Amino acid sequence: MKKLILGLLVFVSSYGIAQDGYKLWLQYKTVDNAKIREHYSELNETISLDTNSSIAKVIQKELKLAMQGMLSQNPRFSEENPTLIIKKIADLPKDLKPKQNLIDSINDEGFNIQTITSKSTPKILITAKTDQGLLYGVFTYLKQLQLHKDLTELSITDSPKIKKRLLNHWDNLDRTIERGYAGFSIWDWHLLPNLIKEEYIDYARANASIGINGTVLNNVNASAYILQEDYLEKVQALADTFRPYGIQVYLTARFSAPIEIGGLETADPLNKEVRQWWNNKADEIYKLIPDFGGFLVKANSEGQPGPNNYGRSHVDGANMLAEALAPHNGIVMWRAFVYSDEKPDDRAKQAYTEFVPFDGTFKDNVLVQVKNGAIDFQPREPFHPLFGAMPETPLMMEFQITQEYLGGMSHLVFLPKIFEETLQEDTFSQGKGSTVAKVVDGSLTDTQLTGIAGVSNIGNARNWTGHPFAQANWYGFGRLAWNPKLKAETIAQEWLGMTFSTDPAFVKPMTSLLLDSREAVVDYMTPLGLHHMMAEGHHQGPGPWVKDLGREDWTSVYYHKADSLGIGFDRTATGSDALSQYAPEIEKAYSKIETTPEKYLLWFHHVPWNYELKNGKNLWYNLARHYQDGVEEVEKMISTWEQMKPYVDEKAYRKTEMLLSIQLKESQWWRASCLLYFQQFSKMEMPDFIPEAPHTLNYYESIRDPYAPGIKPSWD
Ligand code: BDP
């Protein structure tokens, strides 16, 4: 009878509700190979774990859940002949202590997992310096089980390479999300602090499982209200919920808060009362949340208030807040995403121009947070020139996980491939090999305070991210935040195995699909270095014709500059000279069309339509070829997905299938409308391989969607 019930349970967990996506990559699916299952069951029978701390309690809960799910087994927690030992190094008996050089090699959040043989039976030992390290060790151990790895000779030593690994939620207090495509905000402010939803706990679990250790709860376009006492109590409730998962809470601080909620007449950072107001506010926050992480600030950017309003600098503003937070060990993340309409310079240059002169003048607890790309998270941008240009200042990377410019809710694009591409770019700032990853992890300049942020793609959708494959982008961001040198391919394999199936017949083709999805989106949206060609406002769909907006640098025509001679933005010395912000090695190579990588061609040069590219064909032909390649790649994704039916639950299969067909339609829409639009300038024939467009350019230009999701609420 017992067996029958167990069998039924297994059936329900692997074929029933398991794949509505809620469980993310923590599916803990039944290990169905009998041999592996037996081996795993033996090793996880008795667990030694001191459950005195709140983190250890979380570990215990997770182990129970995982073992029940994967092995239908209830582990025993006991010190008697344990087969799995989870203990801090300081608490280990002498004979189990790792060698000193191993201890020295892990940091406070790192861990070691080892298969040991004690009294002739194999055991697993997970050890770390802190409870948080143990938590990460346990999640990594569980991942080995999820991926059906051999445990007989486990030996994993790992530590995060970046200190502050944060999600940035662009969530508003009314629960709308700026550029959010997965429903409303998961923070139910109205019912906080009293209602702690199950989702908050699972959110924390998911983040801890990939090593994320902080979260900024509110939008960079912030409301000052979040700093009021009643909201701070709500923030406190979330902080209390996340703490056992090693996650600190941060807030975006609106620079003008002293006026809006403090009753002061100014927010001038050099004004004594203003400074006192922030000091008091920090004291108030830390009384409620002793481990509060600090503030993120968007200042003097896109109309947000900031120190410039009072004739003060970014340093004056950042340092004022840093001073208020320093006694409590808090940090300030000051965003470098600034561009001003008073200085009509190439927008790609402005952050560098404003921030480089401040290098070395920020207080020790300030990080400057730099976006991935000097324009704005485009499908492909060269790395931001600030990386490598401020050696005396900790620079944080800001990636965008939500797909503002990459197909919103409907396109499958594996972002870790984009993140990897940027992280591996060479800045040459300290000679060859000075990659962006080394700037961000601090190894290049021996920077101690290091950070990385990902703009979250999470909402209250049942599966958290809307598109089932958008979960991979959350997962992948976390993994790269832990180790910016990880390969996108490894991340894809892990995620696919944990989420869907470890069968190589699934993992192999799907890994290629994920990796190739990156180039596909560039090809059908912005090939050869084109950028900022999206429809106005909501940023969904093509809009190369967008012009005459409030500011030139909000239009597409400003960026592609197509005319009868050619297309592209000249950023060399004959143009905006943005290229000079890069190291001489890059400047030299990219100053000539012939030696500029084709993927950045039109980013740096205005190129004649008939210019011959490396394949001997002219620019117009190549542009068309890229658009066509992008569409064909989506067709390929669809046929690969069709083969995957046996490995994926019906619901997830169907949803992805339908989303891929939307992606195909939209890629065709990009191809047709962009090529028709540019043909007006090239006046060249459409190559044969481009199918006839189903509509006229006029039709494409007339498409409007005032209700497209993700629109900036203030633009409604
Ligand atoms: C742009 C978004 C806008 C954000 C802004 C930012 O369109 O909604 O507020 O960046 O990052 O990408 O501050």
Fold and architecture overview:
By secondary structure, this protein is of the alpha/beta class. Among the domains are: 21-157, 2-Layer Sandwich (Chitobiase, domain 2); 164-499, TIM Barrel. It is 38% helix and 10% strand. It has helices at residues 2-15, 34-43, 54-71, 100-105, 131-146, 198-209, 229-242, 257-260, 272-288, 314-325, 347-355, 415-423, 436-440, 471-482, 488-499, 504-525, 557-560, 584-590, 601-604, 619-643, 650-682, 697-702; strands spanning 46-49, 76-77, 84-88, 111-118, 121-128, 155-158, 164-168, 214-216, 248-252, 294-297, 331-335, 366-371, 395-400, 451-455, 566-567, 607-608. Strands 7-8-9-10-11-12-13-14 form an eight-stranded parallel β-barrel. Strands 2-1-3-5-4-6 form a six-stranded mixed beta sheet. Strands 15-16 form a two-stranded antiparallel sheet. Helix 9 (272-288) crosses helix 10 (314-325). The chain is globular and about 80 Å long. Bound molecules: beta-D-glucopyranuronic acid (BDP). Beta-D-glucopyranuronic acid binds at residues 178-179, 220-221, 298, 302, 337, 376-377, 404, 712.
Bound molecules: beta-D-glucopyranuronic acid
Q: Roughly how many Å apart are the termini?
A: 61 Å
The assigned structural class equals alpha/beta
| Helix proportion | 25-40%
Low-confidence stretches: 1-18
How many helices? 22
Strand content range: 5-15%
CATH architecture of the domain at 164-499: Alpha-Beta Barrel
Which sequence of strands runs across the widest sheet? Answer: 7-8-9-10-11-12-13-14
Assembly form of the protein: single chain
Mean pLDDT: 95
CATH class of the domain at 164-499: Alpha Beta
The CATH superfamily name of the domain at 164-499 is Glycosidases
Radius of gyration: 26 Å
Active site: 302 (proton donor), 376 (proton acceptor), 404 (proton acceptor)
Protein name: Xylan alpha-1,2-glucuronidase
Enzyme class: hydrolase
Subunit structure: Homodimer.
